[in-house]
Amino acid sequence: MHIGGLSSIHNQAKKKCEDLMQQKQSIQNAFDRQSTQTKLEHRLRLKASIEVVTLLLNQGLAFRWHRKDESSLNKGKFLEILKWYAKRCDKICDLVLEKAPKNDKLTSHKIQKDIITACKLETIKAIIEDLNGDNFALLVDESCDISRKEQMAIVLCYVDRMGSMVVRFIGIVHVRDTGSLYLKEAIVNYLAQHSLSLSYVRGQCYDGASKYARGSKWP
């Protein structure tokens, strides 16, 4: 039975529902049907991209260049290092960049950002585990990038299991308002995202975010 024409909103929704119910068309099944060799090659490409990203992050280097077309002699550090890596690693030399499938290169700007986000989450997780539920000091400073948007850099200072003082940057929070109450809410929410509570704060330091220090009190 058709309600409206074949191209009506109802029938389009019905068709999408039927397609969703057909498990043979699901992404998971499509991946499962791929050969073991195809999966291995995908993982090797992903591993290469992850290793280049972690190298750039550890060195604090920019990823992109203003040009990355075929005629460019410098396509940016990510692509240039990946190219260099491929020339020296037999496992991936025939699998990455121009030799990779067009839909599985794993070098796009989005892929790079996804890997960076994963690295960020793993790094913060390691810091929280090292903190081990202990007390900490909170350092907050105003931060600014090329976008000129208001943001705060949040840093934890604590003593680790070996008795050494550790200072760790855990993130940047974008803020719409620089009022003290809004800044406090932004800090509280960010800490809560990582299972941190203000009740464990034993010291506070605010530099560029001095508005917060002047206008707020800890509960």
TrEMBL record:
Domain DUF4371 positions: 6-211
InterPro entries xref list: DUF4371
Protein name as annotated: Zinc finger MYM-type protein 1-like
Lineage, uppermost ranks: Eukaryota, Viridiplantae, Streptophyta, Embryophyta, Tracheophyta
Gene expressing this chain: LOC104217472
